[in-house]
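INTERNAL AUDIT FORM
Audit reference: QA-55
Scope: verify that the stored structure record matches its stored sequence.
Auditor: D.O.
Record contents follow.
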Amino acid sequence: MLDTKPLLLDTDFPRINRQHVSTLQVNLGYLCNLSCTHCHVNAGPKRTELASLELIDTLLEYIDHANITTLDLTGGAPEMNPHFKYFVVEARKRNVTVIDRCNLTILNEPGYEDLAQFLADNSVVVTASLPCYTEQNVKEQRGKGVFESSIEALIKLNALGYGKDTELELNLVYNPNGAFLPPPQESLQADYKKELGQTHGITFDGLHTITNMPISRFGSMLLSKKTFNDYMQLLKSSFSQSNLDSVMCRSIISVDWQGYTFDCDFNQMLDMPLELHASHSGSNTIASDKKRVHIKELLNKDISGNNIVIGEHCYGCTAGQGSSCSGALA
Protein backbone atom coordinates (compact mmCIF):
# COMPACT_ATOMS: atom_id res chain seq x y z
CA MET A 1 0.00 0.00 0.00
CA LEU A 2 1.34 3.44 -0.98
CA ASP A 3 2.14 5.74 1.96
CA THR A 4 1.08 9.40 1.91
CA LYS A 5 2.71 10.33 5.24
CA PRO A 6 5.95 11.77 3.75
CA LEU A 7 3.81 14.14 1.68
CA LEU A 8 1.88 15.41 4.71
CA LEU A 9 4.60 16.28 7.24
CA ASP A 10 5.66 19.67 5.85
CA THR A 11 2.66 21.97 6.10
CA ASP A 12 1.55 25.59 6.17
CA PHE A 13 -1.56 24.73 8.17
CA PRO A 14 -2.11 27.29 10.98
CA ARG A 15 -0.80 26.42 14.45
CA ILE A 16 -3.58 25.57 16.91
CA ASN A 17 -3.63 24.84 20.63
CA ARG A 18 -5.49 22.37 22.78
CA GLN A 19 -8.37 23.38 25.03
CA HIS A 20 -9.78 21.38 27.95
CA VAL A 21 -10.05 17.66 27.19
CA SER A 22 -13.65 16.47 27.47
CA THR A 23 -13.66 13.46 25.13
CA LEU A 24 -11.53 10.33 25.21
CA GLN A 25 -11.60 8.54 21.88
CA VAL A 26 -10.27 4.98 22.11
CA ASN A 27 -9.46 2.64 19.26
CA LEU A 28 -10.15 -0.77 20.78
CA GLY A 29 -8.39 -2.59 17.94
CA TYR A 30 -8.24 -3.14 14.20
CA LEU A 31 -10.24 -6.38 14.13
CA CYS A 32 -13.38 -5.92 12.02
CA ASN A 33 -15.87 -8.05 10.14
CA LEU A 34 -15.56 -5.67 7.14
CA SER A 35 -12.74 -4.23 4.99
CA CYS A 36 -14.10 -0.90 3.69
CA THR A 37 -12.26 1.05 0.98
CA HIS A 38 -12.56 4.36 2.87
CA CYS A 39 -11.35 2.91 6.20
CA HIS A 40 -8.50 5.08 7.47
CA VAL A 41 -7.31 2.43 9.97
CA ASN A 42 -7.05 -0.46 7.47
CA ALA A 43 -9.23 -2.64 9.68
CA GLY A 44 -10.30 -6.13 8.66
CA PRO A 45 -11.12 -9.71 9.71
CA LYS A 46 -7.46 -10.76 9.79
CA ARG A 47 -6.20 -8.00 12.10
CA THR A 48 -5.19 -9.16 15.57
CA GLU A 49 -4.43 -5.88 17.38
CA LEU A 50 -6.79 -5.52 20.38
CA ALA A 51 -6.70 -3.34 23.51
CA SER A 52 -6.05 -5.30 26.72
CA LEU A 53 -8.09 -5.32 29.93
CA GLU A 54 -5.11 -3.75 31.72
CA LEU A 55 -5.17 -0.81 29.31
CA ILE A 56 -8.91 -0.38 29.70
CA ASP A 57 -8.52 -0.15 33.48
CA THR A 58 -5.84 2.52 32.95
CA LEU A 59 -8.21 4.42 30.66
CA LEU A 60 -10.90 4.30 33.33
CA GLU A 61 -8.36 5.75 35.75
CA TYR A 62 -7.67 8.57 33.29
CA ILE A 63 -11.42 9.20 32.88
CA ASP A 64 -11.63 9.68 36.64
CA HIS A 65 -8.53 11.91 36.75
CA ALA A 66 -9.46 14.19 33.84
CA ASN A 67 -13.23 14.33 34.45
CA ILE A 68 -13.90 13.00 30.96
CA THR A 69 -17.55 13.41 29.99
CA THR A 70 -17.59 11.44 26.70
CA LEU A 71 -16.02 8.10 25.79
CA ASP A 72 -15.90 7.56 22.01
CA LEU A 73 -15.20 3.92 21.09
CA THR A 74 -13.83 3.12 17.64
CA GLY A 75 -12.10 0.29 15.78
CA GLY A 76 -12.18 -1.78 13.63
CA ALA A 77 -15.42 -2.95 15.04
CA PRO A 78 -14.98 -1.88 18.68
CA GLU A 79 -17.61 -4.41 19.76
CA MET A 80 -15.28 -7.25 18.69
CA ASN A 81 -12.88 -6.42 21.51
CA PRO A 82 -13.60 -9.01 24.24
CA HIS A 83 -13.58 -6.26 26.90
CA PHE A 84 -15.99 -3.92 25.08
CA LYS A 85 -18.97 -4.58 27.37
CA TYR A 86 -16.89 -4.23 30.53
CA PHE A 87 -15.56 -0.86 29.34
CA VAL A 88 -19.06 0.41 28.48
CA VAL A 89 -20.57 -0.68 31.81
CA GLU A 90 -17.75 0.87 33.86
CA ALA A 91 -17.92 4.15 31.93
CA ARG A 92 -21.69 4.35 32.34
CA LYS A 93 -21.31 3.81 36.09
CA ARG A 94 -19.37 7.08 36.01
CA ASN A 95 -22.21 8.83 34.10
CA VAL A 96 -19.93 9.16 31.08
CA THR A 97 -21.67 9.39 27.70
CA VAL A 98 -20.52 6.42 25.60
CA ILE A 99 -20.47 6.55 21.80
CA ASP A 100 -20.20 3.29 19.86
CA ARG A 101 -18.96 3.79 16.30
CA CYS A 102 -20.81 0.84 14.87
CA ASN A 103 -20.64 -0.55 11.34
CA LEU A 104 -24.20 -1.92 11.85
CA THR A 105 -23.48 -5.32 10.26
CA ILE A 106 -21.76 -6.48 13.48
CA LEU A 107 -25.23 -6.52 15.10
CA ASN A 108 -26.14 -9.43 12.81
CA GLU A 109 -22.96 -11.47 13.21
CA PRO A 110 -23.07 -14.85 15.02
CA GLY A 111 -22.13 -14.36 18.66
CA TYR A 112 -23.32 -10.75 18.72
CA GLU A 113 -27.06 -11.38 18.73
CA ASP A 114 -27.49 -9.66 22.11
CA LEU A 115 -25.36 -6.63 21.24
CA ALA A 116 -28.16 -4.27 20.19
CA GLN A 117 -30.05 -4.98 23.42
CA PHE A 118 -26.87 -4.40 25.44
CA LEU A 119 -26.34 -1.01 23.78
CA ALA A 120 -29.93 -0.02 24.53
CA ASP A 121 -29.78 -1.26 28.13
CA ASN A 122 -26.76 1.00 28.73
CA SER A 123 -28.08 4.01 26.76
CA VAL A 124 -25.06 3.93 24.46
CA VAL A 125 -25.11 6.49 21.64
CA VAL A 126 -24.89 4.55 18.38
CA THR A 127 -23.06 6.38 15.62
CA ALA A 128 -23.34 4.10 12.62
CA SER A 129 -21.60 4.14 9.27
CA LEU A 130 -23.96 4.19 6.31
CA PRO A 131 -22.15 5.89 3.41
CA CYS A 132 -25.34 6.20 1.34
CA TYR A 133 -29.05 5.41 1.42
CA THR A 134 -28.77 3.48 -1.87
CA GLU A 135 -27.54 -0.09 -2.18
CA GLN A 136 -25.13 0.49 -5.08
CA ASN A 137 -23.07 3.22 -3.41
CA VAL A 138 -22.78 1.24 -0.16
CA LYS A 139 -21.74 -1.84 -2.12
CA GLU A 140 -18.92 0.12 -3.81
CA GLN A 141 -17.47 1.27 -0.48
CA ARG A 142 -18.20 -1.62 1.84
CA GLY A 143 -18.89 -4.73 -0.22
CA LYS A 144 -21.72 -6.98 -1.35
CA GLY A 145 -24.53 -7.60 1.13
CA VAL A 146 -23.50 -4.84 3.53
CA PHE A 147 -26.40 -2.53 2.65
CA GLU A 148 -29.02 -5.21 3.31
CA SER A 149 -27.39 -6.16 6.61
CA SER A 150 -27.16 -2.49 7.62
CA ILE A 151 -30.86 -1.95 6.96
CA GLU A 152 -31.68 -5.05 9.01
CA ALA A 153 -29.57 -3.70 11.89
CA LEU A 154 -31.20 -0.27 11.73
CA ILE A 155 -34.66 -1.85 11.88
CA LYS A 156 -33.48 -3.82 14.91
CA LEU A 157 -32.23 -0.64 16.60
CA ASN A 158 -35.47 1.21 15.82
CA ALA A 159 -37.44 -1.62 17.39
CA LEU A 160 -35.48 -1.08 20.62
CA GLY A 161 -36.26 2.65 20.59
CA TYR A 162 -33.15 4.02 18.90
CA GLY A 163 -33.96 7.03 16.75
CA LYS A 164 -37.32 7.34 18.50
CA ASP A 165 -36.64 7.48 22.25
CA THR A 166 -34.85 10.61 23.44
CA GLU A 167 -32.70 8.39 25.68
CA LEU A 168 -31.45 6.25 22.77
CA GLU A 169 -29.59 8.36 20.22
CA LEU A 170 -28.90 6.98 16.74
CA ASN A 171 -26.73 8.89 14.28
CA LEU A 172 -25.61 7.87 10.80
CA VAL A 173 -22.28 8.69 9.17
CA TYR A 174 -21.71 9.61 5.53
CA ASN A 175 -18.33 9.45 3.77
CA PRO A 176 -18.00 10.44 0.09
CA ASN A 177 -17.24 7.51 -2.21
CA GLY A 178 -14.65 9.51 -4.12
CA ALA A 179 -12.20 12.41 -4.07
CA PHE A 180 -14.71 15.17 -3.35
CA LEU A 181 -16.10 17.02 -0.34
CA PRO A 182 -19.35 15.93 1.34
CA PRO A 183 -22.48 17.82 0.26
CA PRO A 184 -24.13 20.17 2.79
CA GLN A 185 -24.93 18.10 5.87
CA GLU A 186 -28.39 19.54 6.52
CA SER A 187 -29.76 18.87 3.02
CA LEU A 188 -28.17 15.41 2.82
CA GLN A 189 -29.69 14.54 6.21
CA ALA A 190 -33.10 15.46 4.86
CA ASP A 191 -32.53 13.17 1.86
CA TYR A 192 -31.44 10.30 4.13
CA LYS A 193 -34.46 10.70 6.39
CA LYS A 194 -36.85 10.82 3.44
CA GLU A 195 -35.40 7.82 1.57
CA LEU A 196 -34.80 5.57 4.58
CA GLY A 197 -38.17 6.47 6.06
CA GLN A 198 -40.24 5.97 2.92
CA THR A 199 -38.41 2.87 1.67
CA HIS A 200 -37.58 1.05 4.89
CA GLY A 201 -39.54 2.78 7.68
CA ILE A 202 -36.25 3.73 9.40
CA THR A 203 -35.86 6.77 11.64
CA PHE A 204 -32.68 8.24 13.13
CA ASP A 205 -31.59 11.38 14.96
CA GLY A 206 -28.82 13.00 12.92
CA LEU A 207 -26.45 12.56 9.99
CA HIS A 208 -22.72 13.22 10.34
CA THR A 209 -20.89 14.05 7.11
CA ILE A 210 -17.15 13.31 7.29
CA THR A 211 -14.50 14.27 4.74
CA ASN A 212 -12.24 11.48 3.52
CA MET A 213 -8.68 11.95 4.76
CA PRO A 214 -5.74 11.53 2.31
CA ILE A 215 -4.23 8.75 4.44
CA SER A 216 -4.23 4.93 4.69
CA ARG A 217 -6.40 3.10 2.10
CA PHE A 218 -7.98 6.25 0.69
CA GLY A 219 -4.64 8.05 0.45
CA SER A 220 -3.05 5.03 -1.22
CA MET A 221 -5.87 4.98 -3.76
CA LEU A 222 -5.30 8.68 -4.51
CA LEU A 223 -1.60 8.04 -5.12
CA SER A 224 -2.22 5.01 -7.33
CA LYS A 225 -4.67 7.01 -9.45
CA LYS A 226 -2.32 10.02 -9.46
CA THR A 227 -5.03 12.25 -8.00
CA PHE A 228 -3.40 12.93 -4.61
CA ASN A 229 -2.20 16.44 -5.52
CA ASP A 230 -5.59 17.36 -7.00
CA TYR A 231 -7.39 16.22 -3.85
CA MET A 232 -4.98 18.14 -1.60
CA GLN A 233 -5.53 21.24 -3.72
CA LEU A 234 -9.29 20.82 -3.27
CA LEU A 235 -8.90 20.59 0.52
CA LYS A 236 -6.57 23.58 0.72
CA SER A 237 -8.57 25.79 -1.62
CA SER A 238 -11.69 25.04 0.46
CA PHE A 239 -10.04 26.02 3.76
CA SER A 240 -12.30 27.95 6.15
CA GLN A 241 -10.66 29.90 8.96
CA SER A 242 -13.85 29.80 11.03
CA ASN A 243 -13.59 26.02 11.39
CA LEU A 244 -10.35 26.31 13.41
CA ASP A 245 -12.28 27.23 16.56
CA SER A 246 -14.22 23.95 16.67
CA VAL A 247 -11.96 21.26 15.20
CA MET A 248 -12.28 18.13 17.32
CA CYS A 249 -8.58 17.86 18.20
CA ARG A 250 -8.91 20.83 20.55
CA SER A 251 -11.03 18.89 23.06
CA ILE A 252 -10.24 15.24 22.36
CA ILE A 253 -7.47 12.75 23.04
CA SER A 254 -7.19 9.78 20.71
CA VAL A 255 -5.75 6.57 22.18
CA ASP A 256 -4.59 3.57 20.17
CA TRP A 257 -5.03 -0.09 21.10
CA GLN A 258 -1.68 -0.07 22.94
CA GLY A 259 -2.46 3.06 24.98
CA TYR A 260 -0.40 5.62 23.06
CA THR A 261 -1.93 9.07 22.69
CA PHE A 262 -2.54 11.35 19.72
CA ASP A 263 -4.36 14.59 18.99
CA CYS A 264 -6.85 12.83 16.72
CA ASP A 265 -7.64 9.49 15.11
CA PHE A 266 -5.98 10.56 11.86
CA ASN A 267 -2.71 11.49 13.57
CA GLN A 268 -2.90 8.09 15.23
CA MET A 269 -2.95 6.36 11.85
CA LEU A 270 -0.02 8.50 10.69
CA ASP A 271 1.91 7.79 13.94
CA MET A 272 2.20 11.50 14.75
CA PRO A 273 2.20 11.41 18.58
CA LEU A 274 0.66 13.91 20.95
CA GLU A 275 3.17 16.39 22.40
CA LEU A 276 3.49 16.53 26.17
CA HIS A 277 4.77 20.09 26.26
CA ALA A 278 3.99 23.22 24.31
CA SER A 279 6.50 23.89 21.55
CA HIS A 280 7.66 27.38 20.66
CA SER A 281 9.24 26.38 17.37
CA GLY A 282 8.29 28.52 14.40
CA SER A 283 8.57 25.59 11.99
CA ASN A 284 5.54 23.65 10.84
CA THR A 285 7.64 20.72 9.67
CA ILE A 286 6.65 17.82 11.91
CA ALA A 287 9.39 15.44 12.98
CA SER A 288 8.41 11.85 12.25
CA ASP A 289 10.53 10.30 15.01
CA LYS A 290 9.01 11.88 18.13
CA LYS A 291 8.58 9.72 21.22
CA ARG A 292 5.09 8.35 21.69
CA VAL A 293 3.32 9.32 24.91
CA HIS A 294 1.40 6.62 26.79
CA ILE A 295 -1.88 7.42 28.54
CA LYS A 296 -0.18 6.50 31.85
CA GLU A 297 2.01 9.59 31.44
CA LEU A 298 -1.09 11.81 31.40
CA LEU A 299 -2.66 10.55 34.62
CA ASN A 300 -1.35 13.50 36.61
CA LYS A 301 -0.95 16.08 33.85
CA ASP A 302 -3.02 18.89 32.40
CA ILE A 303 -2.22 19.35 28.70
CA SER A 304 -4.55 22.30 28.12
CA GLY A 305 -2.84 24.93 26.00
CA ASN A 306 -0.34 22.57 24.39
CA ASN A 307 0.31 22.67 20.67
CA ILE A 308 -1.62 20.27 18.48
CA VAL A 309 0.50 18.26 16.06
CA ILE A 310 -0.50 19.26 12.53
CA GLY A 311 0.05 18.14 8.96
CA GLU A 312 -1.33 18.75 5.48
CA HIS A 313 -4.18 16.31 6.19
CA CYS A 314 -5.56 18.80 8.73
CA TYR A 315 -6.99 20.72 5.79
CA GLY A 316 -9.51 17.87 5.54
CA CYS A 317 -11.10 18.95 8.84
CA THR A 318 -11.31 22.63 7.87
CA ALA A 319 -12.39 22.39 4.22
CA GLY A 320 -15.81 23.71 3.31
CA GLN A 321 -18.37 23.06 6.06
CA GLY A 322 -15.66 21.40 8.14
CA SER A 323 -15.43 17.82 9.32
CA SER A 324 -15.15 16.07 12.65
CA CYS A 325 -16.20 12.81 14.27
CA SER A 326 -19.47 14.59 15.04
CA GLY A 327 -19.97 15.73 11.45
CA ALA A 328 -19.85 19.18 9.91
CA LEU A 329 -18.49 22.09 11.95
CA ALA A 330 -20.42 24.89 10.23
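Auditor finding: record pair retrieved intact. Residues 185-200 form the longest helix (16 residues).
Action required: none
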